UniProtKB/TrEMBL annotation:
Domain VOC: 2-132
Species name: Exiguobacterium chiriqhucha RW-2
Keywords: Metal-binding
GO biological processes: L-methylmalonyl-CoA metabolic process
Claim: Metal-binding is one of the keywords in the record: yes
PANTHER family for this protein: METHYLMALONYL-COA EPIMERASE, METHYLMALONYL-COA EPIMERASE, MITOCHONDRIAL
Family: Belongs to the methylmalonyl-CoA epimerase family.
Record-linked SUPFAM superfamilies: Glyoxalase/Bleomycin resistance protein/Dihydroxybiphenyl dioxygenase
Alphabetical list of PROSITE patterns matching this protein: VOC (PS51819)
Pfam families listed in its UniProt record: Glyoxalase
InterPro entries assigned: Glyas_Bleomycin-R_OHBP_Dase (IPR029068), Glyas_Fos-R_dOase_dom (IPR004360), MeMalonyl-CoA_epimerase (IPR017515), MMCE/EMCE_epimerase (IPR051785), VOC_core (IPR037523)
Molecular-function annotations in GO: metal ion binding; methylmalonyl-CoA epimerase activity
Name of the protein described by the UniProt record: Glyoxalase
Keyword Metal-binding: yes
Amino acid sequence: MHIDHTGIAVRDLDEAITFYTTVLQGKLVDRYTNTAIGVETEIAVIHVGDDVIELLLPTSPTSPIARFMKARGKGVHHVAYRVEDLDESIESLKRDGVTFLEDTLRTTAKGRRLIYMDPRHSGGVIVELCDYPTIKQ
């Protein structure tokens, strides 16, 4: 398991892109809108060295990012860890007593499968587990 990316909730996507590409010398590698019901977010993917940052701008007041920002403000939303096999990791962690936000289990349009752990296990930090079954690891 290793860190796949860090998701950061932002209020101004263009301003955030400018910061990460100019100040931190990152490279914008993708920008798209996720229109899936319950997700509604515009996403910019920035590579900073070997690290990946996902800048997240809510496009609906009911998106999880909008709800997060209303409660906590902008900033780090989640840390995503890549696992070899998401289903196997979920089952193993469940045996250890870890619970998940089951309604977050999904496959993105980009082919990433993901689920969020219940943040009570991680001191309030939102932890995403993900895999890429169509991409060799």
